[in-house]
């Protein structure tokens, strides 16, 4: 029991559905067999989530994570008492909520770096609120890399029950993405895929690499990046022990991954993989910041302002994110 | 009174691929025979093509069968054409400039503007660009092309039983450009095209982030999604309807449908090819031909 990883759960932006789905997951007791979950945030936000979810969570407030007496029947809550949700408008972007979300995560990262948390799982944030609250990073992955003083490669990983995806390019215009298909970037994405999938227990990992052009370029008829860049890079890496199958047509690689042929797919551009994982993932998609010292997971969906407070938000993504954080953290905990 | 069944041409495609096999299976399928009178178009029976072997001869034979079917369709002898796959490399080897059926058919029928559509029960997608390198796609997203394809969709889809189609346009860039932060084609071209089309009375919305619009359409929010490039549309079509989607050409004066797969040289001649997609293509051609009458 005590060998289970300690995962810090952050309740997400309090103006959204994060508190509700957190309360639902905690009330279900679902993660108990895989992790010791401790909520870090404001107990009033958890109370709000319980009201949204029409459920009760038995919890006990602590000042510090290392004061928690494990095993704990009640959910331990490290109460930062840093935001009163009664002062926030639900279902709307709030600078104050964004500021507090960033502070809570920063606090949790300090706990993780100090060894008190083995991983961090957070309910949906609002990017606009974070920006307006003073946390101006292009995305949360770069924020976490900065706050963990990370050097070297890292990146966004998207996970659904069938497979995970890794990105050669991400949030850039398509016209820029095609120019960023370089051996260096492909190598970084593939090595990250190998290391992360191995940590998830896939050994050796089975990885497919997507082509850039339609029909894999049809032997150079519609684009030659496959012949000129992708295939030679994969050949070189294969010789170095970093194996992968590809390049494969992007309209079939995800079908093959869905059928269980691959643990991971390396995609060339954002929508290539996101179309597939969002279509297949339904409520189970999880986003992971891969390659950092600390494990970070979050559901792939957002704050869902349109259904806040209605009690109908689906907690499936958050539950899967907690399980994944536990699995990734367990691979690192001795 | 028994309605007359339409005659539908089935072209066998590249004779070295699985085309002749699936064409024969489709023509014999009871559902097909119920809906139409299928007529096979292909090289004469005494001509032999080694299965799975790329050749200029096979490419030319595929081409000639298509030409014959188009002539007969234009003369009204058949009500539509369902095509088995051709091999683009065999076309190239035979010195023919067409990258596939769609541009060949546009040429044969003098059609100025055609668009490829994939038709399946869960999802219907029209492509703004098709067989081009991805690096060419952004500059092909012109206002002229976008306007023309939107109008083509609005004009043609009623023939498919969509009297007033609800169209969605996918964005080109991640998150549909995130208000201009990630690429400007949405702001510069796609959004103005949608606004102008709505002003012309077309029911269209967008541009939407590509990673959620196909799911929304599959759940019934829209009838047809217009995708900016081949894989953007084909990734969701294949995930949701692999082997059942039909490729339809919009903008031709004749009815033409096709399979959603290739020549599968690796299994040609083994008798194991699945004719489902060609069966669906033939059934849709029969349905469209019946409407055209």
What would you say this structure looks like, in words?
The complex is a heterodimer of chains A (334) and B (293). Chain A folds into 2 domains: 191 residues, Isopropylmalate Dehydrogenase; 114 residues, Isopropylmalate Dehydrogenase (3-Layer(aba) Sandwich), CATH 3.40.718. The model of chain A has no long low-confidence stretch (mean pLDDT 94). Chain A is an alpha/beta fold. In chain A, strands 3-4-2-1-5-12-11-6-7-10-8-9 form a 12-stranded mixed β-sheet, sandwiched between helices. In chain A, α1 crosses α2. Helices cover 38% and strands 16% of the residues of chain A. The radius of gyration of chain A is 20 Å and the shape is elongated. Chain B is of the alpha/beta class and 293 residues long. Chain B has 2 domains: 153 residues, Isopropylmalate Dehydrogenase, CATH 3.40.718; 124 residues, Isopropylmalate Dehydrogenase, CATH 3.40.718.10. Chain B has 11 helices and 10 strands. In chain B, strands 2-1-3-10-9-4-5-8-6-7 form a 10-stranded mixed β-sheet, with helices on both faces. Chain B is globular. Chain B starts with 6 loop residues before the first strand and ends with a helix. At the A-B interface, α6, α9 and α10 of A face α4, α9 and α10 of B.
Mind sketching the topology for me?
The complex is a heterodimer of chains A (about 325) and B (about 290).
Chain A (H helix, E strand, L loop, with lengths): L5 E5 L7 H11 L7 E6 L1 H11 L5 E4 L12 E5 L15 H19 L5 E4 L4 H6 L7 H8 L7 E5 L4 E4 L6 H4 L5 H17 L7 E4 L14 H15 L5 E4 L1 H9 L5 E4 L2 H12 L4 E5 L4 E5 L16 H15 L4
Parallel strand pairs in A: 1-2, 1-5, 2-4, 3-4, 5-12, 7-10, 8-9, 8-10
Antiparallel strand pairs in A: 6-7, 6-11, 11-12
Helix pairs in contact in A: 1-2
Chain B lengths: L6 E5 L7 H10 L1 H6 L1 E5 L14 H19 L5 E4 L4 H6 L7 H8 L6 E5 L4 E4 L9 H4 L2 H14 L10 E4 L14 H15 L4 E5 L1 H9 L5 E4 L2 H12 L4 E5 L5 E3 L17 H17 L1
Parallel strand pairs in B: 1-2, 1-3, 3-10, 5-8, 6-7, 6-8
Antiparallel strand pairs in B: 4-5, 4-9, 9-10
Helix pairs in contact in B: 1-11, 7-8
